[in-house]
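[SOLVED] Need 3D model of a two-part complex

Original post:
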Amino acid sequence: MEIAIGVDDLVVLRGKRPVLHGLSCTVPRGSVTGLLGPSGSGKTTLIRCVVGVQKIKSGSVTVLGQPAGSPALRHRVGYVTQAPSVYADLTVRENARYFASLYGIGHRQADQAIIDVGLKQAADQLVTTLSGGQRARVSLACAWVSKPELLVLDEPTVGQDPVLRNDLWQQFHDLARAGTTLLVSSHVMDEAGRCERLILLREGRIVADDTPAAVRAATGTDDLEEAFLRLVLAQEKAVA
Amino acid sequence: MSARITLHTTARILRQLRHDPRTIGLLLVVPALLLTLMRYVFDSQPAIFNRVGVTMLGVFPFIAMFLITSVAMLRERTTGTLERLLTTPVHKLDLLFGYALAFALAAAAQAAVAAGLAYALLDLATAGSAWTVAGLAIGNAVLGMAIGLLVSAFAQSEFQAVQFMPAFVLPQMLLCGLIWPRDQMAGWLETISNVMPMTYAVDALTEVSRHADPTATMWRDVAVVIGCIVVALLLGAATLRRRTS
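Solution:
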């Protein structure tokens, strides 16, 4: 298995309080890996470490063979933040074209990215006039327009309608088949089953790092929400 | 750094401005309106209008660009676009120069309208050329932009950013010699005014209003202003951190 992201004994502090307690995990290349856990479990912090914008206390994060945040990685890694980080006072098209231009990518591909996220009809609308779910898709288009080798998505499907969410997951898998690695966070456990690998996070610690099938088998339940609960309870019992 | 990314960034900032016609209107009309007011306040004293009017041509772009840049940069920080940009191939200097170029162009438009009105309709008279005045006005705009960019790092909200204007700009206006000659102030105030960028920006304009040809003092003032721009931009670049906690 070729490794896209390697996290080794990662410790991150927020103020004096640790938010990640010596995490270690790996993400294989060409897969869709889900980063799941409740709100406040450290998903966004871990993601920020992967894209190299988080100050870390100790440990290491290696991305595509280089230390996270290396200048060379900026051409190879796409990042979609949780809150849509696009320019509200530009149109959808102007946003996509601007982010494309940073990678030397032309208008045609920028327009294609807008079609890919289902915003063709809204392409010439100002982002400020769009719904929350549409804004999130603009943000997504601005990241995948550069066709990065690693796409890191922080809760990309929140607030999307079920049909569109299904489409997005379909596209994530199409991208993975074409060789892209995707790390997708979510706090909705019903999305866990759509991933090829799962990293389950709770209170800054890893609860499980495996395939959905293995997690189901280990806990003896088909319901991943229930599996997560059983894993947490088992670990708490072990600690106590 | 890349010229291509810098220019695309400039274009993006100008597009944002274009979607906000009211801001464009305010940028172009307000200085012209204030100059007109001033012209008729000093109706009986054209000599005073000639002195004060020419310096106001330089001070307006400074204030306008200071405000616009500090708010625009604060938005980049609070909406997450800055964090995102810093994970892309954008270099910090691409962003800074992108802003500098965009707002210098906006300032040029502003200076053209204000100076055009002042010379053509308000009978402003300067010994030096109107082109030099316009050039200095654009330089002052870039100075305002560079300082606005720097102080935006210390604002957590738009409320705070806007109030940096009276905090940083008004003391400079009071002390720069526009209201009262600097050598007649309390000595310690003159010393403080000696280290304020606007003192030199205004002094350069005063030189143009009095002398037909650029003077050595004017060139010294221009050099000081350029130095301040460079220092503010470098300090501003230092506040654009890729890694935050």
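Edit: Chain B has ten helices and no strands.
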